[in-house]
Amino acid sequence: MNAPETTETGSSGDPGYDTVDVSVLVIGAGAAGARTAIELAERGINDVLVLGKRSHGDAHTTWARGGINGALGTHDPEDSWAVHAADTLNEGHFLNDPGKVETVTKQMPDRLRELDEWEMDFSRTEDGSIDQRFFGAQSFRRTAFAGDHTGESMLNALIDRAQELSVPYRENVMITSVLSDGDRAYGAVGFDMDTGDYLVFNAGTVVLATGGYAAVYNRHTSREDENNGDGPALAYNAGAELMDMEFVQFHPTGMAVNESDPEWEPWSGRLVTEAVRGEGGRLYNAEGERFMKRYSPDQMELDARDIVARAIAQEIAEGRGTENGGVYLDLSHKSESFIRERLPRMHERFDSLGVEMASEPVEVAPTAHYGMGGVAVDEYGETSVSSLFAIGETMAGVHGANRLGGNSLAETVAFGAVTGKRIAEQVDGPGRIPGQIVDDIAKPQMRDLTTLAGRDGTYGVMSVFTDLQDLMWEHAGILRDEDSLRAGLDELDALREKASDMDVGPITSDSFEFAIDIGFMLTAARAVLRGAIQRTESRGAHHRTDYPDIDSDWRRNIYFERADVGGMSTHTEAVGTPSEAVQDALDEGYELDYHQLE
Question: Among this protein's residues, is 251 annotated catalytic?
Answer without folding.
Answer: yes
